[in-house]
Amino acid sequence: MAASGLPPLPPQFKAVQHILRSAQELDKREPVVAYYCRLYAMQTGMKIDSKTPECRKFLCKLMDQLEAMKKQLGDNEAITQEIVGCAHVENYALKMFLYADNEDRAGRFHKNMIKSFYTASLLIDVLTVFGELTDENVQHRKYARWKAAYIHNCLKNGETPQ
Amino acid sequence: TGSVGTSVASTEQDELSQRLARLRDQV
């Protein structure tokens, strides 16, 4: 985690480890999505533990990053208006989901499509910063997470996914 | 010292909450 400019991730924040890694990966090509991934990690982290010194230190640094990103992306409507931001993150999550789903239906099973299913499920988690998820989003998240785990296990065991 | 520690933690927690609210234009 040091490469991201953040202190080492406290064990209490293991639940946001993957979303912070996705944020780093998306920084260049999808900075708006990366911003909301960090916002989700921030909110989740604050709910988990904002009292112990190592967690406070981590959250303060994460907040510094968020404030710097907001300043940098300040003229982007997807940052200044959360309703636009919500649509942007939702569209990107759907794009990830559809890519993986198309590969799945075409019988092309590979690491990239597993990652896309998993990232889509993480980005649907991120949508909770804007409010309650729609039933459709809940279903997509469940399906994407299950597919990612199922195909991963099949490939690991040398089996062909059905 | 326990209550002082708790009070400091609570102040810093409030500061984080305030920064988060400002970030999201909720103030």
- Name the helix and strand elements of chain A from N-terminus to C-terminus, one letter apiece: HHHHHHH
Largest sheet of chain A: none
Greatest interface: A-B, 15 and 10 residues
Number of strands of chain A: 0
Secondary structure tally, helices of chain B: 1
Strand content of chain A: under 5%
Average pLDDT, all residues of chain A: 95
Overall pLDDT confidence of chain B: 75
Helix coverage percent of chain A: over 70%
Please give the alpha-carbon distance between the first and last residues of chain B: 33 Å
Low-confidence stretches of chain B: none
**Broad shape of chain B:** rod-shaped
Describe this structure in words.
The complex is a heterodimer of chains A (162) and B (27). Chain A has helices at residues 17-26, 31-48, 53-72, 77-80, 82-105, 111-126, 135-156. By secondary structure, chain A is mainly alpha-helical. Chain B is an all-alpha fold and 27 residues long. Chain B has one helix at 2-23. Classes of the chains: A mainly alpha (162), B mainly alpha (27). Chains A and B meet through helix 2 and helix 3 of A and helix 1 of B.
Concise account of the structure shown:
The complex is a heterodimer of chains A (162) and B (27). Chain A is mainly α.
Give descriptors for this structure.
heterodimer; A: 162 residues; mainly alpha; 7 helices; 70% helix; 0% strand; B: 27 residues; 1 helix; 81% helix
How are the secondary structure elements laid out?
The complex is a heterodimer of chains A (162) and B (27).
Chain A: H1 17-26, H2 31-48, H3 53-72, H4 77-80, H5 82-105, H6 111-126, H7 135-156
Chain B: H1 2-23
